[in-house]
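Box 3.1. Reading complex inputs
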Amino acid sequence: MKTRGTALIYDEEMTKYKLLWVDPACKIEVPERLTVSHEALVQSGLADRCVSVPVREATDADILLVHSEEYLEAVKKTPYMTLEDLKEFTLQYGDVYFHPNIYHCAKLAAGAALQLVDSVMTGKVRNGMALVRPPGHHSMRSAANGFCVFNNVAIAAQYAKQKYGVKRVLIVDWDVHHGQGVQYCFEDDPSVLYFSWHRYEHQKFWPQLRESDYDSVGKEKGAGFNINVPWNKVGMKNSDYLSVFCHVLLPVAYEFCPDLVLVCAGFDSAIGDPEGKMCASPDVFAHLTHLLMNLAGGKLCAVLEGGYNLTSLPQSVCQTVQTLLGDPAPPPTNLDGPCQSALESLHCVRSAHKQYWSSLKHAAELPTSDISTKRIKLAEEGEERLEKVEEEESAEEESWPEPPKRVAPPVRTALLLPDGVACPDGCKRFSSSDDPDPVIVNKLRENFLKDGDDSDALDTLSGLTALVDNMEKNEHERHDDRKLSPMFRKTLLVQFSNKRSEEHKYYIPVCLKKGCGDVSGFTQALLGLLLPLAYEYDPSLVLLVRMPDSGLCDGVWLQLTGLLQGLAQGHTLVLMQEEEKTCVAPTASSLLGDPAPSLGQLHAPLPEDAEALERLRHRLQVDWKLLQTTAPESGGGGER
Ligand code: X5A
Ligand code: ZN
């Protein structure tokens, strides 16, 4: 049985605490963060499409999975404290406040994360999101920090391991702050892979920790299982985020092969956020979410962390939830390649992790003048600079277009099948003779079938054109200029085979020793080459042609079809030949939005394939900026 459905966990109770005194560091963490997010989900009709799951209070035992008894006992006393006591209690921690009701809310926030894990692990739903306050990822074993009291996601990860015997958990922290609490919790634990990107500015940005840098990779048995991507400049954009996903997170995550994905879903990494000062548009979260949805058989739990702009926060939450529900992602915007500073970070992280992950084995080494020395130099420059930065607090409000409405097409998947092949459940059987337009049929005959009178071929062709037509008509409410673009633009052809041929910008032969036969090699090409190319090209239609002799196994094929549905607003046309009947049902299921099965932990790809891919990526990165993984000046040139 395939599990479908998306859980939404929310309780108004979590809006019932707030800052009771003056503290500029905490004034942005307001109850409205939750109400506007929930309201947006209700208004857009998304809340109604989710399975509503109640919160519960985390028990002492749950909390003790991550926190110390002393700390829990201390927090337990806060509901009975006077205002003065609360202020005093708060002082021992950094950038956090207490309130008589926050202990109750913190139990609900952690409990909400656990309810979400339960719903996903028992198969009640496929995935889900918990809207919670207080957030969690900064809180440590014995300390509240950064608005966080209990570490909701860390507790959820330990709980999943303990209660469900989950072997590997991936935690993706896309909040703009470093979840140091999560890092400390799992630093030496190879069963939890923690990935975080965060505003860092060479250690000038809160929480200003040395251990938030890219060279904190985990300790002892956990070495390699902590991935930090420091952003050393503000203003990071969609390209920067997507390129880190394609060139760091996804290759490692696929190699790791998690049984469960938890997301520290902070939206202070979106445009307009006063903390993050980044420039990624809310719709980037549709893509980040989509790219994680084929891991762990689709078992994904997103738990709210930060997000302080009351306009971009709800937009980002809606993008995330709508993607979890399976609606096609909007076209990605402004993918003009990563900036220099992001490339430096990418280069550093990949090289710090190349010894731990075979998918990064061929990453470029750092130049001898280590980029991290920049941090030391900056630190030596002293404190005056820091003060200047804080003064320049500008009042100007960022603005950005509201993400366009995303419509779920009334018919998600149509199939044109030969007689005698059954149409899988949930799909529409499309018949080529439905309404063949004679003008089109004639054109097809003239253009493609001049010499022969192959009526079968003509049927197929007119069926396909009608199918493509329908894909667009399906969403007629939207008038989309992009429809016209294929006529004026070159087609991008990426061809996998075991035969070498020369590439140019729009024809990219990917030559692997066993064609598509090697799972690791193909996956590496898919994540580090095809995806970024496809994103930068921004097609209006993805045409996938499967040849019977490709050697592609079903698992990899389904990853391919699954991941590429993030492009072209999900407009995917798959062509396969009659002898591949057994693949029709799994393909249809993928097109209907079902997650691909896990590929298992990946072994190292064939060295010659890995090297060939790296060389190809290197040649193509002149034309395709999203293929870059090193900063131009920092010596990506020769060495590999
Ligand atoms: C969860 C979260 C941020 C704390 C910032 C303190 N915390 N300056 O986003
Ligand atoms: Zn944050």
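In summary: The chain has 21 helices and 14 strands.
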